[in-house]
């Protein structure tokens, strides 16, 4: 839910809180359908939020606007670490540089959003063809 909707409640578990793994999935869909800048903006904001949680995203955090609190607010009973949230940065590392797997190996079409101006990944393996035993 979003600010301005009748049932929106920034501290309501399902009515206004921010779920990092859902945000990463939404960013992936946005990028796939051509909304790369918007996807990058969501990805960067999520990674910025992680810095306020010792770089360990919680299950969920309170959905206050940046103008209201300046920093993300922890949800009182959120699990941290939490499996879904721990995968969030890994999915965003695919979204931000535009990584897509192909038969020839991964291809990248980056669309970075400030403050991330460059992103370098080393040792990214390509496809390995294996013969059946």
List keywords for this structure.
single chain; about 130 residues; mainly alpha; two-stranded antiparallel ribbon; 5 helices; about 35% helix
- N-to-C order of helices and strands: HHEHEHHEE
Based on CA atoms alone, the radius of gyration comes out at: 17 Å
Largest sheet: 2 strands, antiparallel
- Spatial order of the strands forming the largest sheet: 1-2
Residue windows where pLDDT falls under 50 for at least 5 positions = none
What is the typical, i.e. mean, pLDDT?
A: 86
Portion of residues in helices? 25-40%
**Shape designation:** globular
Instruction: Give the tally of structural domains.
Output: 1
Q: Please report which band the strand proportion falls in: under 5%, 5-15%, 15-25%, 25-35%, 35-45% or over 45%.
A: 5-15%
Classify the secondary structure makeup into a structural class. mainly alpha
- Total count of helical runs of at least 4 residues: 5
Secondary structure tally: strands: 4
First-residue to last-residue Cα separation: 51 Å
């Amino acid at each position: 839910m979003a600010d301005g909707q009748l049932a929106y409640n920034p501290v309501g578990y399902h009515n206004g809180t921010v779920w990092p793994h859902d945000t990463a999935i939404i960013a992936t869909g946005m990028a796939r359908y051509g909304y790369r800048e918007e996807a990058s903006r969501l990805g960067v904001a999520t990674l910025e939020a992680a810095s306020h949680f010792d770089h360990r995203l919680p299950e969920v955090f309170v959905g206050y606007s940046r103008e209201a609190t300046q920093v993300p607010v922890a949800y009182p009973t959120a699990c941290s670490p939490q499996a879904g949230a721990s995968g969030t940065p890994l999915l965003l590392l695919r979204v931000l540089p535009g990584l897509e797997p192909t038969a020839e190996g991964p291809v990248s079409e980056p669309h970075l959003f400030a403050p991330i101006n460059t992103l370098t990944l080393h040792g990214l393996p390509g496809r390995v063809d294996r013969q059946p035993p």
